[in-house]
Write a structure and sequence with these properties.
Layout lengths: L1 E5 L3 H14 L4 E5 L2 H11 L3 E5 L7 H9 L6 E5 L4 H10 L3 E4 L4 H15 L10 E2 L4 E4 L4 E4 L2 E3 L3 H12 L5 E2 H8 L9 H14 L7 E4 L3 E4 L2
Parallel strand pairs: 1-2, 1-3, 3-4, 4-5
Antiparallel strand pairs: 6-7, 7-8, 8-9, 10-12, 11-12
Helix pairs in contact: 1-5, 2-3, 6-8
């Protein structure tokens, strides 16, 4: 397991190292103190997960995340001292899988890392390659790839889990509680913000604007119409 931390404060890097040393010693930890070095390490080392600080000396964490998403679907957890809704929303919309507010407890950090990695290992729901979901959309459940009109669509692990859940329940409304449970493995707390963000990201990547495939049933959930 390879974990990359992109963080300019050495004390934070050291604290993360100590946390993993005590609780997850087999993890291979990498670190970069600038955004550009971090992007280069993602390309070179292909980590299993990235811990990304928002405040970096050469570029913002949001810019780093957008650059990473241009070529990789690696799970990313944002580390931030800014817990304002706008910053969290911006990070999630840019493709982050989770966020942690500084200062953080190392047990909380490790629990969130393991949760994100677990979600990233979504098992295929079928052994058939290139299963047609609609006239335009196909899913390769073996390689976990989605194509629209024959063109591959890059989805993050969470986006893929969300889309597969909707696809395997085609024409049926999937309630918010079920989405929270199966995609994020959390209990539904009545908040739909994250779900709506991911639905919007899926629509953008699938070219579903205005939406005809992924439709919202207000107050209930989402349905995939194909």
């Amino acid at each position: 397991m390879k974990i990359l931390t992109i963080e300019d404060e050495q004390s934070i890097i050291d604290a993360i190292g100590v946390a993993f040393e005590f609780r997850w010693p087999e993890a291979n930890l990498l670190a970069a103190t600038t955004g550009r070095d971090g992007i280069a390490l993602v390309k070179k080392e292909r980590p299993d997960l990235v811990l990304l600080d928002i405040n970096l000396p050469d570029m913002t964490g949001f810019q780093v995340l957008e650059a990473i998403r241009d070529f990789s679907s690696v799970p990313v957890i944002i580390l931030t001292v800014r817990a304002e809704d706008a910053d969290v929303l911006r990070g999630l919309e840019a493709g982050a899988d989770d966020y942690i507010t500084k200062p953080f407890n190392y047990l909380t950090l490790l629990a969130r890392v393991k949760a994100v990695l677990r979600r990233a290992e979504a098992p295929p729901i079928d052994k058939t390659r290139e299963t047609p979901i609609s006239a335009r959309v196909k899913i390769d459940f073996v390689d976990q790839r989605v194509t629209v009109d024959g063109t591959p669509v890059r989805l993050t692990p969470v986006e893929y889990r969300f889309f597969v859940l909707l696809a395997r329940n085609k024409d049926k409304v999937v309630e918010y509680a079920k989405i929270a449970e199966e995609v994020w493995e959390t209990d539904y707390d009545g908040q739909t913000q994250n779900i709506r963000i991911y639905a919007r990201r899926l629509r953008n990547k699938l070219g579903d604007n205005p939406p005809k495939m992924i439709l919202n049933h207000h107050g209930i959930g989402y349905v995939f119409k194909g």
